[in-house]
Design brief:
about 20% strand, six-stranded parallel beta sheet, alpha/beta, 15 strands, seven-stranded parallel beta sheet, Rossmann fold
């Protein structure tokens, strides 16, 4: 089977691109059509090749880049071009350029995969802002939400990562929820391993890009300050703005790692006792299950799909939304346990998450969906 996957930017560090999922389908040959890659030479699975358009799509994310990328794709390869005939399916990966709807004319079945609806990002940004800042967010999302809605209504096959996301897509974009397929995130237990459960260099780690209000950076800072007062050591991982880095430098006990490779991410998780998430909406929450696979508890706000993902493992992981004090209290209660008990709990977490969310199961779901799409 051959699949063409379309994405404006191939970022090896973003869960949305999730190259490990493609690697878990060795019988499928993927061609990723993109405008550029980050980093410039990411390590690719053997069954993945990349064709770079080198199109100038600009630095603007909120709809403009998607619109320009879609136009560049259609300019290079119009719907009836022989390029598309070599594929069994076309996989549009969280890309909202309406021009891509013309791919239906190619005769090749099209899948539109949404990792989370941007309408949720917009809602959080508006909730977290006021005055001119709120108006600015409305303007930023005016095109992007409209484009995603058009894509959802224009394709026959939609997929997303959780039932929570499916319900939100159906509600916000007037789609039939029963026609949305679920391809859940999964974790590779051979990569995310426990290491030494009895010895931790850091008490807490937080992972992800916290530039957008959806990730709840201001709540993360509040949590860091509360933990810092208790003398705890914190590992901060992921992309931060210059202003955010300046704030982190002023909090004792915080070590900021920035963006890291996967092997370094695993190492940091193994050297940390817990994971903390202050995200205000998650379509799934990949870092949560990665931490659990390392035997580390993942404490998070009750946002989006977080409860659905974490409650089957331990309902105590889920704290009330925006209640930073309670989130910190749950972290501290776990850290107060004797080392032997923490290690035993860690083994239980790993066993549960690898049973519920293995990467192999995610790959099987995607493979079945490709098969249904082609049939």
């Amino acid at each position: 089977m051959r699949v063409c996957l379309l994405t404006p930017v191939l970022d090896a560090f973003k869960g949305g691109n999730h190259l490990p999922l493609l690697a878990a389908l060795p019988d499928v040959q993927f061609t990723i059509l993109t405008s550029r890659t980050k980093p410039k030479s990411p390590d690719l699975p053997k069954n993945v090749t990349v064709e770079t358009l080198n199109a100038r799509i600009g630095p603007y994310y909120y709809g403009c880049a998607d619109w320009m990328f879609a136009r560049a794709v259609m300019h290079r390869y119009p719907p009836h071009h022989a390029f598309w005939k070599q594929f069994d399916a076309i996989h549009i990966n969280q890309t909202m350029g309406p021009a891509l709807l013309r791919l239906k004319e190619s005769g090749v079945p099209v899948l539109f995969l949404i990792h989370h609806p941007v309408s949720a990002d917009r809602a959080v940004a508006l909730e977290e802002s006021s005055g001119f800042e709120k108006l600015r967010w409305r303007m930023k999302y005016a095109l992007l939400t409209r484009f995603q809605a058009r894509m959802c209504r224009g394709v026959r096959c939609i997929a997303t990562v959780s039932n929570t996301s499916a319900q939100r897509i159906a509600r916000d974009y007037a789609c039939d929820v029963f026609s949305i397929h679920i391809v859940p995130n999964g974790v590779n237990p051979d990569i995310f391993t426990p290491g030494d459960l009895g010895n931790s260099e850091f008490d807490v780690t937080a992972v992800g890009s916290f530039v957008h209000p959806r990730k709840g950076f201001r709540y993360l800072v509040d949590a860091y300050r509360l933990l810092s007062k208790k003398g705890m050591k914190i590992a901060d991982v992921g992309r931060r703005s210059a202003q955010q880095n300046a704030i982190l430098k002023g909090i004792p006990g915080v070590t900021a790692f920035g963006t890291v490779e996967e092997d370094q991410l695993v190492s940091i998780m193994q050297r940390s006792a817990t994971l903390l998430s202050t995200s205000l909406y998650e379509g799934f929450g990949l870092s949560l299950i990665e931490a659990l696979a390392c035997g580390r508890p993942a404490f998070a706000f009750d946002a989006g799909a977080v409860r659905d993902v974490l409650s089957p493992i331990d309902p105590g992981f889920v704290a009330p939304l925006r209640d930073t004090q309670e989130l910190v209290n749950r972290v501290c209660r776990f850290l107060a346990l004797p080392p032997a008990m923490r290690a035993a709990e860690g083994k239980r977490y790993r066993e549960a998450v690898t049973r519920l969310y293995p990467l192999s199961a995610s790959a099987q779901c995607l493979m079945r969906l490709y098969g249904q799409l082609i049939a």
